[in-house]
Amino acid sequence: MARCDLEVEGGEMGKALVTETALRDHVHRLGELHPPISLDSVDRTVRRPHLVLSEYGHVIDYLARVELEVDRNVLELLTLLPDANQTDRTFYRDVWQPQETQHGLILDRLQQDLGRPAAAPDTETVSAKIRVLGALSHLRPVHEVTRLLYYLTGAATEKSAVLAYGRLSGGMRRLGEHAIARTVIDQIKRQEPGHFAYYALSARWMIQHRVLAPWQVHLARVLRRRSFGLVGANNEVQRAQFGELVQSLDLTDGLPAYAHQISVVERELLWAGQQGMYVPPYVLKALDDALELARSGQYADPIRT
Ligand SMILES: [Fe+2]
Ligand SMILES: [Fe+2]
After folding, report:
1. Which residues, other chains included, contact 202 with Cβ-Cβ below 8 Å and sequence gap of 6+?
2. pLDDT at 303 over 80
3. Which of 236, 247, 235 lies closest to 304, judged by CA?
4. How far is CA 305 from CA 127, 167, 302, in A?
5. Residue range 64-103, pLDDT digits in tens
6. Among the listed residues 55, 34, 22, the one whose alpha carbon sits nearest the alpha carbon of residue 180
7. What is the pLDDT of residues 114-143, one digit of tens each?
8. CA Rg value for the chain
9. What is the structure's pLDDT at 253?
10. pLDDT tens digit string along 193-250?
11. How far apart are CA 198 and CA 155, in angstroms?
């Protein structure tokens, strides 16, 4: 009976079965096809720096910071998943961290070209919440729940990156900044879908192979609802900055559609039982709150003109 519940709630029946070999191959392929982007391969020629600065300077800063915080994300991963398997370790060590680090360094260089200060990433602070969950993860049943939540967070984060870089690429072209669009943003953008696919497939693998008992899936739902956060938005200032990013990338009108996309994996794996759920309410609420903070202007970017 429990298994039937999972099948219905997981909604995975129509999806191809994910295997551990497929996950391993995916990681291997990503490493081969997408070496870290070298600084020499990008053309940072900006035709109208003042315009780029005022329209997208704060967006570039946000993305640079979040990319550079990959070092902290690795510490979080090591805390949360003391028992991470070999494929996860290869992914973060050989593929993900080296790629994201270069994304961050390139964007940070670009924002400094524009006259902004360097990004100020927090690469060290592992929150108390994560340390508590990490301590509990030494218990196998908790480790599995944490692992699923980790993949869901990764999927939402990477999908957010895909969408942000897509919009930023279009925006740079609109401003006539073709070198930046093509050699900076598009190069970075091409590496994000592979990260998203890794987290999505890993989460799906867990549900398809019934790694979690129904009570664990239920616990994952409860914890996800309570702990969901927008990527890189760990305090009120950063939430306001995320709201500004949403405004500047013209996502305000299509907010539910944006939320729909970043929640694609958790809707499939956690909420399929809620027929027709377009967006989990906690995702839309997080976005609405960020926008409200941005609109209040209390944390407005001082460099924006
Ligand atoms: Fe990235
Ligand atoms: Fe990424």
Report:
1. 18, 23, 88, 151
2. no
3. 247
4. 34, 21, 8
5. 999 999 999 999 999 999 989 999 999 999 999 999 999 9
6. 55
7. 999 999 999 999 999 999 999 999 999 999
8. 19
9. 86
10. 999 999 999 999 999 999 999 999 999 999 999 999 999 999 999 999 999 999 999 9
11. 8
Residue recorded with tokens 């946000």: 62
Q: How far is the CA of 188 from the centre of ligand 1 (A)?
A: 6
C-beta separation of 100 from 207 below 8 A: no
Q: What is the CATH number of domain 2-35+43-120+128-296?
A: 1.10.620
pTM for the model: 0.93
193 CA to centre of ligand 2 in angstroms = 8
Q: Could you tell me the distance, in angstroms and rounded to a whole number, from the CA of residue 96 to the centre of ligand 2? A: 7
The amino acid present at 18, given as its one-letter code, is: V
Residues with CB under 5 A from ligand 2 (ion): 158, 192, 195
What's the pLDDT score for residue 5? 30
User: What does the alpha-carbon distance between residue 214 and residue 22 come to, in Å, rounded to a whole number?
Assistant: 25
- What does the alpha-carbon distance between residue 11 and residue 289 come to, in Å, rounded to a whole number? 30
* Å from CA of 4 to ligand 1 middle: 38
Domain boundaries, the chain: 2-35+43-120+128-296
* Ligand nearest to the Cα of 104, by number: 1
Nearest-angstrom CA–CA distance, 196 and 203: 11
Q: Convert the pLDDT of each residue in 268-287 to its tens digit.
A: 999 988 878 999 999 999 99
211 burial via Cβ count (<10 Å: 0-12, 13-18, 19+): middle
Predicted confidence at residue 14, as pLDDT, reads 53
CA atoms within 13 A on the CB side of 139: 8
